[in-house]
Automatic annotation (TrEMBL):
It comes from the Bacteria. Residues 56-103 form the HNH domain. This is HNH domain-containing protein.
Amino acid sequence: MPTINRQISFTKDQLATIKEKASQPGFSHTQWGDDDLLDTRRIIREHYRNEQRLKCAYCMNPIASISANGANIEHIIPKSKKIEFIFEPKNLCVICPDCNEVKRSQEVTGDEPNPLKRNAIQYPRTSGAFKIVHPHFDNYSEHIIHANRIYIDITPKGHWTIGACKLNRFYHRFGVCEELVEDVALIEEEEAFHKFHEQPI
Ligand SMILES: [Zn+2]
């Protein structure tokens, strides 16, 4: 099952606010944080917090249940690249402050990886259109093994996501240390467990 099964559906009033904002001349992604979108952001954040059961869409670590800064709204196709998808329900999710910091610094330097395989006019409706493990379309555990601090790719999508979101940050900071070795042992135990249970009787 994907991480998100139900996209946000905006009310008539919320859609009117969105439409008005998006139709302002010169509307750009830098206006996402404007005060008149405060309520819209709150509604989106709360919806995906619940839908994702307080887990970050990229690293699966816990996100804050109350603090707005601890649960950042993410545009899966970056809003700086595709302004037309800035309010697209399937393009939205919530992520943790660390993943957000990675994405934010990429936006500042203009180095955001583009998760789309090819350019899209309409928002794609299938997993295959994306290089990223998409929380609305993909089952995370089919693409990435995540045990404590380690992330291992199972598929090209998993590989792309681990790289784009710099998920192995613990390893990059501390290298191979005791905690990491313990995590590897945990993964090996899990794999052995699954193999054992997958064997035909
Ligand atoms: Zn995260």
